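DM from R.C. (forwarded with permission)

"hey, sorry to bug you on a friday — could you get me a structure for this? deadline for the figure draft is monday and I only need the backbone to look sensible"
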Amino acid sequence: MSLPARVTIAEVGMRDGFQFEAKPIPTDLKREVLQGLVAAGVPRIQVTSFVHPTRVPQMADAEELCARLPEGDTVYTGLALNARGVERAAAAGLGFVDLSISTNDRHSRDNAGMSLVEAIEEAEVMIGLARRLGIQAQMGLQCVFGYAAPGDTPLDRVVDLARRYALLGLESLSLADTTGMAHPVSIQRVVEEVQSVVGDVPIVLHLHDTRGLGMANVLAALQAGVTRFDASMGGLGGCPFIPGATGNIATEDTIYLLEAMGIETGIDRRRVGAITRGLEAFLGRELPGKMHRLDVKSHAS
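My reply, with the result:
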């Protein structure tokens, strides 16, 4: 089995997780979580999204939070879905922006209020604007593995968009299993096809664990040569348009899998787990991840 020596994990729970929570999360608590993640050695954190506060109230403090980012070598990013979001990210002082569009017309209309054609054009505008503003851009393609049903997003479309955007100059390209429909065979097939057209642009996998295949998909991606993954504290997150959808693959579980196979991440799993347990106490419920609880039980025994 061919596996990498090291993998980079980006923590996306502060955006992809927090945005779905009904209970308001104070900016001071977000700042504490950020400090904890930095202390745990997380190299890249998606701290917020630059969207209209009426659509996503949890992200209304985007600028305030960016003004209070801990100093250090951590890469801080913010999500933008349109040109205005890119402008806000740059004005907030971020050096990186995560752009994102759907590859599925129905999801694009549900999620962003744009047709697929409109979203594709908007993405080109966002990439060009980020370049002019001097910030690096990751381009994210959503619903790569399906939306209403597995495979209802044509692979040819995904490959064509990946090629198109890679030529415009990207820091990285993210492939998102937004609805958790991917499985190991589809992971390897899609990654292989996309790798063939993006050149040296790194591929990032953004996986959800809706059907319990998150860790299996990580392994398949590793074997396909992927070395960058998004993950979320305790498995925070979801998708408002998918009944029963769960969050991203849990950060602690992902680190455990990688380290068990001898792959370094540079992240202290137990320190991230402590942050997750604090969030569980604040939210008043258990999160779907496993290792943040098992580590406590193991230590106690």
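R.C.: lifesaver. The chain has one domain: 8-300.
me: no worries. Residues 116-133 form the longest helix (18 residues).
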